[in-house]
Amino acid sequence: MAGSAPEPFVPRFSPERVVVVMPTYNEAENVPLIAPRVLEQDPRIELILVDDNSPDGTGKLADELAAANPRVHVLHRPSKQGLGAAYRAGLGRALELRADAVIQMDADFSHPPEVIPTLLAELATHDVVLGSRYLNGITVVNWPFERIVISWFGNLYARKVTGLRVSDSTGGFRCLRRALLERVGFERGRSNGYAFQIELNYRCEQAGARIKEIPFLFLDRTRGVSKLNPSIGLEALWVVWWLRLAHALGRL
Predict the structure, then answer these.
(1) Is residue 235 part of a domain?
(2) What is the mean pLDDT of the chain?
(3) Distances in Å between the alpha carbon of 242 and those of 37, 144, 155, 159?
(4) According to the model, what pLDDT value does residue 1 have?
C-alpha cells in the first residue's frame, strides 16, 4: 500500500559455532557410526558425547574419536544418572565451548543426522526448532503398536496438563539458540528421565521463544537396547504437575 511504513528489518541468525550434545550409555555399536554422519552435515558442527560410564566401553570409543578429530569432545560422568542430568551437563559444556547454536539428539539413529541442516536453516528465523513425530500424523517407524499408543497418549497428557502448544512435547530432537538456552534456566531442571524434554519445551514456551516444529521420520533403533523403563514414565506423570504449580507460584 502506498505510503505505508516499511516492515522492520530483522537480521537472520547465522551461527558460527554449532555444538551437538549427544548422551550415550551402552552405545558402543552406534557411536563410531553416528559421529562421522553428524559431523559431515556441516563444517561448523562440533560434537559432545556425554557418557555415563558405559560398561560396554562406549566412553573409550568416544575418547578415541576425540583423539582423532578435534571437533569431537567427550564429557565423562561417573555413573548413569538419567537422561535429563546428562543433557544438563552437556548443554552446560556446549555453552562453555561458546556455541552459538546447540542441537540435542540421540545416539541410536532414531534422530536422522540428515535432518540437521533443516534444523539449522529454520533457526535463522526462530529461537528453537523441534523435530516432531506427531506434527503430520504419526511418523514413527518400527515401534511396537503398544509403544506408539503409550507415547502418543503420554504426549497428549503432557500437553493437556501443561498447556504446551507443540505437537510433540516429549521429543528430544531439538535445535536452540544460545541466547535462549542462557535465559530458560535449564540447569535448574528437576527432571532426570525423558520428562526433561517436556520441561525444556515448557521453559522455552514460558520464555516467549519463537518455536518452529518440523516433521521427521523417527526410526526405532536397530543396534543396542532401549533405556526406557517404568520409572521414566512415572516421573513424567508428576513432573508436568510440578511445572504447572511452579509456574503458577513464580518459582520455575
Answers:
(1) yes
(2) 90
(3) 38, 30, 16, 14
(4) 47
pLDDT of 2 higher than 70: no
DSSP 110: S
Q: Cell match 578429530: residue?
A: 69
Confidence at residue 230, expressed as pLDDT on a 0 to 100 scale: 57
CA distance 239 to 190: 8
Q: How far apart are CA 163 and CA 158, in angstroms?
A: 8
Please provide the size of the chain in residues. Answer: 252
3-state secondary structure of 224: coil
Amino acid found at 153: F
Rg (CA), the chain: 18
Q: What is the mean pLDDT of residues 155-171?
A: 92
pLDDT greater than 50 at residue 3? yes
| Number of structural domains in the chain | 1
Buried b or exposed e, range 210-247, using 16+ CB within 10 angstroms: ebbbbbbebbebeebeebeeeebeebbeebbebbeeee
Q: How far apart are CA 134 and CA 154, in angstroms?
A: 12
Question: Which residues share a beta bridge with 27?
Answer: none
H or E segment and range at residue 55: none
- Cell digits of residue 185: 534456566
Q: Which domain holds residue 58?
A: 18-248
**How is residue 186 written as a grid cell?**
535449564
CATH number at residue 35: 3.90.550.10
Residue 141 corresponds to which cell in the numbers above? 517407524
CA–CA distance, 92 with 122 (Å, rounded to integer): 23
Task: Calculate mean pLDDT across residues 163-173.
Answer: 93
Distance in angstroms (rounded) separating the CA atoms of residues 39 and 206: 32
Q: Provide the whole-model pTM.
A: 0.89
Pick from 130, 142, 235, 249: nearest CA to 193: 235
Domain assignment present for 27 = yes
